[in-house]
Each structure stands twice: as structure tokens, then as C-alpha cells.
Amino acid sequence: MQKSLAFLGLVGLVLLASAAELNSPDEKSRLLVSKQLLNKFVVESMDVVIKYSVFNVGNVAANNVQLKDASFGPDFDVVGGQTEVSLGRIPPQGNVTHTVVVRPLKFGYYNFTAAQVTYTSGEDTKEIQQGWSSEPGEGYIAPFREFDKRFSPHLLDWAAFAIMSVPPLLIPFLLWHSSKAKYEAVLLSKKSK
Amino acid sequence: MHKLPACLLVAFIGIVSANSCKEPAVTSKSYTTVDASVLTSIAYLTEFELSCGGQPAKIPLYAEIGGQLFNVVRGNKYQVSWTEEIAKATRGDHIVNLYDDEGFAQLRKSQRSGDAPTPLTSVVVNHPGAYSGPLLNSEHLAAITGVIVVYIAITCRGKLLS
């Protein structure tokens, strides 16, 4: 009898613990960070727009949010924006975006890796949480020459084509014109006689 | 006995006056993407430094652009950035109104009531429009020119034969 009571008590405790867990929601801020490339093509020495979106899906504000993207080495030129910034405070269910524009200096395959995010959850915790953004993954940086070959208006090439197609048109026309002028001269002299 | 609260009050006033920025001045550098042939969205960025009465300031700022609220991030400089789809991107000056904590609270209130508070200062981002390829492809232009030449030649021939 005592044993079964003890067992029931134990079951009750476990249930209570799980109920307590259910009742007190997880008081934490959780950040989801996406890193996106807003490009159709990534081309050497042309703009690459990188957008970071930070969402707080937790139920407490995230404080002192720092975003750091150390993935752009010497092969990239940062033309706009900063790669290491403080986003301040993000309220629960809030979101913040940040944009950086870089230009790749070399072509070939490149692995776009994640950015790092650090933050503290809530107002009074000192513990620094760390997270990583999504990774855009490996992409091909096309050489500028290849891109130019495919998409430039080729004005010079077409101008050369136009110049080359002028002689085959102009030479027969001039021959015809000179013979016509001669014939007309003969006709005129006959008429005048 | 009453000295301590008085000290605290002085310190508090000091903090408040440090937060409200007198004679704000900004030096900004803006960047927008102007070659849209490889992009899906236009990026607008402005980086700026704020000084209050000649002293460089590091106060939290908030931005409002065309009725929308944006965050101002802080690295070595302040930065406001946003993106727009190419079709929706608008040319010309985009005015970024900057607010401090107090101004931002007023702004949020005013969004419900109507009248907007005057911003601390503002920054202008100019977007001259983006190039997204030629209006008429050169191969099409060449084909049209060819057709015109053929038409002229045929009409001339017709006239001569008749």
C-alpha cells in the first residue's frame, strides 16, 4: 500500500514538474538570422548586395545585438555599409535588417559563409548568446569578360559589321550609277542631234 | 542626509541632457546600386557621423523614411540601409529623418494621432536610377536597319523596271 502511494506521489511530482514547465514559458530571446544575396548573377567587380535579416522569435527582447561578418577577406572590396555593427535592441517578434554592398575582386567558385550574431537575452542577464546566420553557400563569381560577352550591347562589334557590309552594297551601286550616267549622256547627245 | 538624492538628481539631469542632442550636425556618405543588370533589388545605404554641438555623439538613433520606420545600426559610423525591388525603386532624393529616443516615442504616438514631430536631423540619399540593360538590343536594331535597306533596294528596283 505504502509502495503504491509512493509511486503515485512520484507520478504526481513528475506531472507537476512538466505542468510547471508548460506554465512558465521559456523566457528567452531567440534570434533567427538570414543572410541573402540579392543578385541574379555574381560578377567580378560588380555590386553584390547582401541583406541580413534578424528576427526575434523569442518572447523577451534581445539586447546588445552585434552582427559580424568576417567572411569577406581580401578578395572583396566593401563599397557600402559596414560588416561589423551593433543592432541595439530587438523587441520580441521584432525584426531588423542590415545591408552591405561588396564587389568581388576575383572570379571563380566562392563559398559565402555565415555571419556571427551575439546578444544577451532579456534585460538582466549578462550571459552572451551566440548564433550564426544562414549560409548562402557556394556560388560562382563570373569573370567580368564572360558577363560582358553575354550581356553587353556589343555596339563596337555591330559597328564593325555595319562598316564591313557597306562595300558589298556600295560598289555595285556605284558601278550601276556610273553606267547609268554614261547611258543617259549618250541618250542626251542623241536627242540633241 | 539630503545630499545623496541631490547628487543622484544632478547625475540624472546630466544623463538626460547628454541624451538630447543640441545643434545636431551630420556628415554622411551615401551609396545606392546603379547597375541593376545583375541585381534583383536596389540597395540604399547611408553612413553618417553625428555631432552634437561640435562633439561626436553616440546616442541611439531611429530613422523614418516615407512613413516607414527603420533601425539605425552602429559600427564605426551610424548606418541606415534598406532595399527595394527594381520595379518599385524610385529615383531622386530619399529623405531619412533621424530621431533620438524621445523623438521616436513621439513619432510612434503621432503615427496613431497624425502630426509628426520634427526630426533631430535628416540625411538625403539620392538614387539617380539604375541601368538595367539597353532599351533596344543592338541585334534587333541591326535587323531593323537590314529590313529598311532591303525595302529601299526593292522599291528602287521596282521603279527602274516599270
Short account of what is shown:
The complex is a heterodimer of chains A (193) and B (162). Chain A is α+β, with helices and mostly antiparallel strands. Chain A has helices at 2-23, 144-151, 155-192, and strands spanning 31-37, 42-43, 48-56, 62-68, 76-80, 84-90, 95-104, 108-112, 116-121, 128-132, 137-142.
Structural class of chain B: alpha+beta
- Largest beta sheet of chain A, briefly? 4 strands, antiparallel
Flag low-confidence runs of chain B: 6-18
Helix content of chain A: 25-40%
- SSE order of chain B, one letter for each helix or strand: HEEEEEEEEHEH
Model description:
The complex is a heterodimer of chains A (193) and B (162). Chain A contains 3 helices and 11 strands, in the order H-E-E-E-E-E-E-E-E-E-E-E-H-H. By secondary structure, chain A is an alpha+beta fold. Chain A folds into 2 domains: 27-149, Sandwich (Immunoglobulin-like); 154-192. In chain A, strands 1-3-7-5 form a 4-stranded antiparallel beta sheet, with no helix packed on it. Mean pLDDT of chain A is 84; it is low at 1-24. Chain B contains 3 helices and 9 strands. Mean pLDDT of chain B is 83; it is low at 6-18. Chain B has helices at 3-19, 101-113, 138-161, and strands at residues 24-32, 41-52, 55-56, 62-65, 68-71, 73-74, 78-85, 92-99, 121-127. Helices cover 33% and strands 35% of the residues of chain B. In chain B, the strands form 2 sheets. In chain B, strands 1, 2, 3, 6 and 7 form a 5-stranded antiparallel beta sheet that branches. A 4-stranded antiparallel beta sheet of chain B has the order 5-4-8-9. Chain B has 2 domains: 22-131, Immunoglobulin-like (Sandwich); 135-162. Chain B starts with a helix and ends with a helix. At the A-B interface, strand 2, strand 6, strand 7 and helix 3 of A face strand 2, strand 6, strand 7 and helix 3 of B. Chain A: Heterotetramer of TRAP-alpha, TRAP-beta, TRAP-delta and TRAP-gamma.
